[in-house]
Amino acid sequence: MADHLTIATHPLVQHKLTLMRKADTPTAQFRQLLREISQLLAYEVTRDLELTTARITTPLVEMDAPVLAGPKLALVSILRAGNGLLDGMLDLIPSARVGFIGLYRDEVTLKPVEYYAKLPAGLETRRTIVVDPMLATGNSSAAAVSMLKAKGARDIRFLCLLAAPEGVARMAQAHPDVPITTGALDERLNDKGYIVPGLGDAGDRMFGTK
Ligand code: URA
């Protein structure tokens, strides 16, 4: 599992995550923290992007300066909570293409069913970063990644704020080729599928719903 999972141990990530976990953190602050933490997680999940050089002229001399070599990035948000991670990521990667996948759980089969998908073209040639704050059972994440692979995506990463061991194991079993970056690996899921200690329902906390 070690290669498959990266925990963003940066002190700012850990401090902000603690504030987000607190039950009395109000919606506006939760949203602001999520935006800030998303920027830090974007930094972490893109740290192995390849560089090449371009010839530029500074006010003093010419130089070969580092620039991103590609591939181009696609960010795919799993609705609705994934959208909370998008804004901060786009602050750092403004030229990324963005896709959305909506899934609900069929009450009979308990399997994720797609109700919405809008994806950028050319996923075959992009690095695709799937974003969802809470990797809980991993069922919807695994289904979203399967769908992206069916549409041609090959170079896929998964980014979340909190992960449960159950979700990490599910993703490792279904998609061992997809590395996961998370802010923390929590203890477990409870019988309602919430991550413990967790932060509650991420969508409700970021949008102020209940
Ligand atoms: N989704 C959430 O929003 N919170 C959890 O704890 C698990 C899944």
TrEMBL record:
Keyword Transferase: yes
Activity regulation summary: Allosterically activated by GTP.
Enzyme class: transferase
Any Pfam family matching the protein: UPRTase
Cofactor, free-text remark: Binds 1 Mg(2+) ion per subunit. The magnesium is bound as Mg-PRPP.
Cofactor(s) for this UniProt protein: Mg(2+)
All residue ranges annotated as the Phosphoribosyltransferase domain in the record: 9-209
Listed NCBIfam families: PRK00129.1 (NF001097), upp (TIGR01091)
Protein name: Uracil phosphoribosyltransferase
Classification lineage: Bacteria, Pseudomonadati, Pseudomonadota, Alphaproteobacteria, Rhodobacterales
Designated gene of the protein: upp
